[in-house]
């Protein structure tokens, strides 16, 4: 390719345009030939004067006029168009007959002599029977689906003949326009007499025995008759049999991989005549360790592009481009490859607007931060209603992990974060601030007098104040390093500092030490809180850049600034809060993963008893900030857990969870009208001590900002 080579991209999707544009050089120029009548992923017909036959003719003409040397395709219908253009223009590419036999699932089974029971049903466009008799003894339950459709959509499990015919008639309205788009192309470019009634204008369905078994997909390509298998991807399903995700590597082991490889190389590829093309072949893995073919696609599986790129070092787009030029694909030097990769589906059986089912605000945030590769399958205003056996896919997310356990944590976290139907109670997430000038939020409180949240950024040692009405932020430089703050009176605050407890007047910047030592030992405060008597409760820590050096403690500093040790059996002191009545103090030990509840003597402020209110696993995250709502319930944040949870103040049972699109949630407070809004701070800074906790890493922190979030509940939590 010494001169500029022109590549025609047929039926391009938005994703293909983005990725292929990145591959364009002074030697390769892509020509995107848009099809106005079709949206590709997910497939949907659009009202247009153009049709598929017209588009095929236009593609052939365009290729001739623009000296096209290769044709790129990534989608089923694009596969059909590409094979026709390549044949007419004598370009390298897939065979038209092969593509048709792969796309029409009935003829796929005929070509490979499938041992499963299957049968072709033909309907008129109006749903009336044309050829619907089943062979005697055809087994039920049976699975019926359109013979020519994409992604296995619209398929249904049926229990008897009447159920089967009813399912087909219900699918006619959506499937018939699709078939009517395809038929003129088949009639023009195929020898229709060769295939019989299945290629006629009637609407074809394929019915086959319903198999309950694990499904896998074998991906690879054929170059000049030589088969190269790139990998085998598992189709992981839930208890209903609905696709949960696609995962590589396969869990089925070397024996099954060898059986599938032999079946592909010696059976499927030669019988269907696949050559100079990618293939994506689906199998059932039966309980007796045999395999049964499900479908054959004479194209790459672009759904798995990131999986093969980051787990196998093959870029399917670049490889398909190499094949289109008649060259054998080669792998890339990716450096680090992940052991586990998966395309995870966020799907729903719910009905209504997509925006009521999926949190588009948080999806946009994750896309903006490039935290995950996310593909939206719907628009926010789109009306959603599941049809048939399969739920509606709202979005697809690629996840890469080191261990299966971390993968499961990440998958569940993302579904809890983005699917609104999973929320314990309805709420909306507002991203109030997301600026690089805030990196380590901590110690948030609500200033009752000014009706504003205020918190500390311990990275830049600033006090941050946010005005909700004006969406304005102001900041003050702290007089001493601090992690926490308490409002004493007008303009005066208490600072919990690594060097002690300080009084600070914001306006004058006057600062005075209140308590810096206890029995000669340095008091290094993390979180503090103050009761209505002016008494301060604070937890101390001892750490440096290498980690935790020794255990912490809980102290009381009374109204006369006298320091009293309350509890020295604390591994690492974190959030501290009081109940609305002041009779109970809640204090978190991050090392123990415990929330302690102390009963307080109101006269002296000292604890009368202590009990473990809640125990949190490190798998969920590390206890950090805490607050109490007006009903007395406890709300806590999880560092490295991407989550806030609410627990009952008596039993410790978890009542609610709120997931956020960052891992390190640091502090929280209620505010706003009636204190119904929950304000939450985060951090993107590393915490050296966190390496001492066995917390799975399933999400990377943003490198340049620590957003301030506001949770608005539809009803009082």
UniProtKB/TrEMBL annotation:
Q: Write the record's keywords in alphabetical order, separated by commas.
A: ATP-binding, Metal-binding, Nucleotide-binding, Zinc
Species of the source:
Candidatus Kentrum sp. TC
Residue span(s) of domain ATP-grasp: 272-325
Q: Where is substrate bound in this sequence? A: 526, 544
Question: Active site: which residues?
Answer: 624 (proton donor/acceptor)
Pfam families to which the protein is assigned, alphabetical: ATP-grasp_4 (PF13535), SGL (PF08450)
Top-level taxon: Bacteria
Q: Name one GO molecular function term.
A: ATP binding
Q: Which cofactor does it need?
A: Zn(2+)
Which GO biological process categories is it annotated with?
L-ascorbic acid biosynthetic process
* Protein name, as recorded: Sugar lactone lactonase YvrE
How the cofactor binds, per note?
Answer: Binds 1 divalent metal cation per subunit.
